[in-house]
Amino acid sequence: MILVADNSWTPRSYRPLYFGETENLAERPTTSHERYEDWCTAAGDAGNVPVAYCWMIGSLKDERTAIESDLIKFYKPECNIAYNSFAWWLSRTTPVAAGMPGGYGSLLDMLGRTKLT
Length: 117
Description:
- This protein is mainly alpha-helical and about 120 residues long.
- The chain has one domain (about 1-85).
- Helices cover about 30% and strands about 10% of the residues.
- The chain has helices spanning about 35-45, 60-75, 85-90, 105-115, and strands at about 1-5, 15-20.
- The longest helix has 15 residues, at about 60-75.
- It starts with a strand and ends with a helix.
């Protein structure tokens, strides 16, 4: 999570600017990130851009992405343009068998099972 100081936020005086997930924290919240300039603009400068994180040791990408999605939907941070759940669904790598309760698999799996007439 990328934050910016904001005294109007409680119980902490930091407002979330951006949520993301990664397997390697050292690779993601860097100056090469696609939203880095937006973070700096919102915070005033690069020195005012704290990063908060939650280690999810042993977690799967699907688990991290689900939490990321929930945080974005709840907080609506300005530097997450919009969470695109369709893109997440398309990118799922863990197939779920058709017919399983609650299972839908990835969009690519579903398209592969679709019969066009």
